[in-house]
Specification:
This protein is α/β, with parallel strands linked by helices. The protein has helices at 3-7, 21-27, 78-88, 100-108, 122-130, 209-219, 230-247, 255-258, 272-278, 314-324, 327-337, 348-353, 368-373, 382-396; strands at 10-11, 18-19, 32-33, 39-40, 66-71, 91-96, 116-120, 165-177, 203-206, 250-252, 266-270, 290-293, 300-307, 340-341. Strands 5, 6, 7, 8, 9, 10, 11, 12, 13 and 14 form a ten-stranded mixed sheet that branches.
Length: 398
């Protein structure tokens, strides 16, 4: 993504974040479909995804029984689940995934058969569409769609939001223990801290090949989160192997548990994880032990909610998306999950005023300014994706 060109088209509102949806559509208008059948949208070339079936009809009754969802661990408040179950007289059953790649594979082979998928990003969307896994939405069941951040009602990866409704916003950065690491450690190239041997055995990176390899590119001085340069990708992989030899990092998504537990001192992770981490602090421990460094050059993104084509309870699936897009319900959900809801009705100012954000974690908030300079990750062409995966495999195999 050439962010300067794209960012001229962003409209930022005070206290909240607004992305100009109509301007996004004007950035390119073309679409890219690879020989592998991947429909790829970018900020420069937004895409209206192909549709193989009609949305469900208007006015259908809610199904009964159990709603099956596929989600990250701890990515929905148990109280929110209980509230939805009570309101609709149903049960929610949750299956968990650890990486988008594994989730897509298991959706394709039928291991996962959910009604609703939560937390996917646009880097996986093209694969879901190519596999004909999703059904288009009927927004008559989602009146709270109007609460969504303006530009994300018409995102470049899914023009007209045919398949997706945004869930949370976040940025990539480094969470750490302030009682072990001073924030001055990040004063120069903050990414270098992840290669510091003093944290050997006490450090981790995200189990996400796109996020962690992009971080290594940034550490090396690059600024392309979607690089197709074989040399740049290879050097990023070599840097991660250097990290492996220097600090023996864990590769997982458990920083939100392990850092507050005192089992590790530092991790490259998603910003919202550190708000979640507050929930995992031992009783009596001051939240001030949790800190976050938000890099100037980093990825900022959103994930989304979508419904599978094979959903057994598609009406109820729409109802869950609508429920989580309600302002009060989203705030309740955020109390547990920690991440920022992608709703225009929930601003950064509102979150600060709520006094639920520890002072030491204010830097983890995705402000309009941070959103403005954040880099977008987009679906890679298959041959480029293979280069990234080759380097990731070399890193993780060791």
């Amino acid at each position: 993504m050439q962010r300067r060109d794209f960012l001229r088209k962003l409209a930022i509102t005070t206290g909240g974040i607004t992305v100009g949806g109509s301007l996004l559509a004007a950035c390119g208008g073309g679409s890219s479909t690879t020989s592998d059948g991947l429909s790829i949208g970018t900020p420069q070339n937004p895409i209206k995804l192909p549709v193989s079936t009609d949305p469900i009809a208007d006015g259908l009754a809610n199904e009964s029984g159990t709603l099956e969802i596929l989600n990250w661990a701890d990515y929905m408040n148990p109280e929110s689940i209980a509230a939805f179950e009570t309101k609709f007289g149903v049960k929610i059953s949750t299956s968990i995934y650890d990486t988008e790649e594994a989730a897509v594979a298991k959706l394709r082979n039928g291991t996962f058969k959910p009604d609703v998928i939560l937390g996917m990003t646009d880097t996986g969307l093209a694969k879901l569409i190519a596999a004909d896994i999703l059904q288009p939405l009927n927004k008559s069941y989602i009146p709270n769609f109007g609460n969504v951040i303006s530009g994300l009602r018409n995102p470049y990866y899914d023009l007209e939001s045919q398949y997706t409704v945004p869930y949370f916003l976040y940025g990539n950065g480094i969470g750490y223990r302030t009682d072990v690491i001073d924030k001055s450690a990040f004063a120069q190239n903050g990414y270098e801290v992840l290669w510091d041997t003093k944290y050997k055995g006490r450090l981790a990176v995200l189990d996400s090949y796109r996020d962690t390899l992009a971080m290594a590119i940034f550490r090396n001085g690059g600024n392309d989160a979607n690089s197709s340069d074989p040399d740049e990708i290879k050097k990023a992989g070599e840097a991660l192997i250097e990290m492996r030899e220097a600090v023996n990092p864990k590769v997982d998504i458990l920083g939100y548990q392990e850092i507050p537990a005192g089992n590790r001192d530092i991790q490259f992770l998603w910003s919202g994880d550190m708000f979640t981490a507050v929930q995992y602090l031992p009783e009596g421990v001051d939240p001030g032990v949790l800190g976050f460094w938000y890099p100037e050059t980093t990825v900022t993104k959103n994930d989304f909610m979508c419904i599978t084509k094979a959903a057994k309870s598609p009406v109820l699936a729409h109802q869950l998306i609508n429920f989580l897009s309600d302002t009060d319900n989203a705030l309740l959900n955020r109390e547990y999950v920690g991440y920022q809801p992608a709703l225009e009705t929930i601003t950064v100012d509102m979150l600060l005023a709520s006094e639920t954000i520890p002072e030491s974690l204010v830097d983890a908030l995705v402000t309009p300014e941070k959103y403005e300079i954040g880099l977008a990750q987009v679906t890679l062409e298959p041959e480029v994706d293979a280069l990234w995966l080759e380097q990731w495999t070399a890193f993780t195999a060791g």
